[in-house]
Amino acid sequence: MAVAYELRCRDCGKRFKNDPLSSCDECFSPLEVVYDMDAAKRTFTRESIAGGPASMWRYQSLLPVPEDYAAPTPAGWTPLLEAPRLAKRIGAKNLFIKNDAVCLPTLSFKDRVVSVALANAKIFGFDTVGCSSTGNLANAVAAQAVRMGFKTYILVPADLEPAKILNTQVYGATLVRVEGNYDHVNRLSSQIAERFHWGFVNVNLRPYYAEGSKTVGYEIAEQLGWRLPDNVVVPMAGGSLITKIRKAFKELVELGLVAEKQVRFFGAQATGCSPISTAVKAGSDIIEPQRPNTIARSLAIGNPADGPYAARAIRDSGGWAEDVSDVEIVSAIQELAETEGVFTETAGGVTTAVTARLYAHGRISPDDVTVSCITGNGLKTTDALAGKYEAERTIRPRMADFEEFVAQHEVRGIVVDDMVSGELVGGEYVR
């Protein structure tokens, strides 16, 4: 059974009915979805969840959709992987990877938020939907919108990675490449949504869209055996994901599904676009916009909408934020792939490198249960690894040639294995 919900201003508390709105008309702060938690105690139980589908929709009764809503795409319910080999390299003992690099249908956590946003686009009667995107959101909207019968317009920065552009165009969406960075694209999208009365998932549908992120937190708790971790490391672009995982944990505690516990949240950004981590380090909630300059384009939002709330959530939890260079990002992509068999995009490289730095600097204890969130697949940003691997020489189809190849390869392998891995050199995490 669905639980009643409404929109409410995050700051002044003004209540709104369910409409395609994103900000308060009194104080201009963002709106969020609030639920009847007394009713949720009767319907949102471990038993009801276990009886649900193997997707994020097992948590449907605490998502902003009608009771009879049937999701056309089974997004979510991604693996929570133990990461012992990576843990050993970076000085951890209880490290887990939440792997949304395999989320359906387009291999990023954005599939979750789009599922909820487009459900509400149907409810509100939109026939055309769209988004402003740094890549993953574009892919998710294009794929799910065509499945639901929407016309789709997607706006992206002109310099977006080719793989992400292709992964949007293949679904037949109308792609609009805009000169400038994401913040320019987002401003234009806000104007388009108002002018054409279209449903833009991260503009007028944003409160509902953001609720999809909660399912990452629900899954972490359930997959840990209905307990909360000590720490969660989360990549930050607009800042919404880290606040929604925290909201999910609070809801689970309020409903009695997990024991109350102080979970520390750690935000991860690229140094070339780090407005939230800069604010956290300064002990402030004030976000100073930055001009993005990083290979981690999916995190390259210089003026993050949820930045102040993300900074506050981190500091209130006793956590911290860090940012890492492009060199560290690439090294961490390789490190995660070589140790745990997970190929992540540049955003996951950010999270992995920041996780290593947090252990190296003593901000996370080796014995803590820590979850590092990987939010996208490496097949989308293969350009980041250009020139990192040489083509192996060919051999003749003869055993002698193969034996010679193996001998040479093993000598090289010994040299590589003897190198110090995960070391902080000159302030950078390198392999």
UniProtKB/TrEMBL annotation:
First-tier enzyme category under EC: lyase
Modification N6-(pyridoxal phosphate)lysine, positions: 110
Keywords: Lyase, Pyridoxal phosphate
Pfam families on file: PALP (PF00291)
InterPro entries: Ser/Thr_Dehydratase, Thr_synthase-like, TrpB-like_PALP, TrpB-like_PALP_sf
Cofactor(s) demanded: pyridoxal 5'-phosphate
A molecular function (GO) term: threonine synthase activity
UniProt keyword annotation of Transport present: no
The keyword Lyase belongs to this UniProt entry's keyword annotation: yes
Gene3D superfamilies the record matches: 3.40.50.1100
Annotated GO biological process: isoleucine biosynthetic process; L-serine catabolic process; L-threonine catabolic process; threonine biosynthetic process
Domain Tryptophan synthase beta chain-like PALP: 75-376
Enzyme Commission number: 4.2.3.1
Family note: Belongs to the threonine synthase family.
Record-linked PANTHER family: L-THREONINE DEHYDRATASE CATABOLIC TDCB, THREONINE DEHYDRATASE, MITOCHONDRIAL-RELATED
NCBIfam families for the chain: thrC (TIGR00260)
Protein name: Threonine synthase
Taxon lineage: Bacteria, Pseudomonadati, Acidobacteriota, Terriglobia, Terriglobales
